Amino acid sequence: MTRPIKNIVMSKGKVFVLNVSRELFVLRDNQTFEKCDYEANMACLAIALYKDGMLLAHTTKGICLIEPEKGRIVGRLNIPQKCRVIMSYIIARIKIGFI
Prior knowledge:
Layout: E1 5-11, E2 14-19, E3 24-28, E4 32-35, E5 44-49, E6 55-59, E7 62-67, E8 72-77, H1 84-95
Antiparallel strand pairs: 1-2, 2-3, 3-4, 5-6, 6-7, 7-8
């Protein structure tokens, strides 16, 4: 990983890092980052810890609920482009604990 970090989240013992290039990585072996490719052509815009250790990700393909242990998307809410700004705001509020 060579780009600046935008956000860091820890869930179920795994560290996830979102960089400014909209790439999501998971820390492996305490020194190596592995890119998370949950779906082709999907960029991650924001990430937050959600209930039960799940990750909530605002992506270019909607809002995704990610199961960190299995490394897969378990739920998705497709939203129109004009609503994505509002969703980014909501995720930001979740990250800082206001929701």
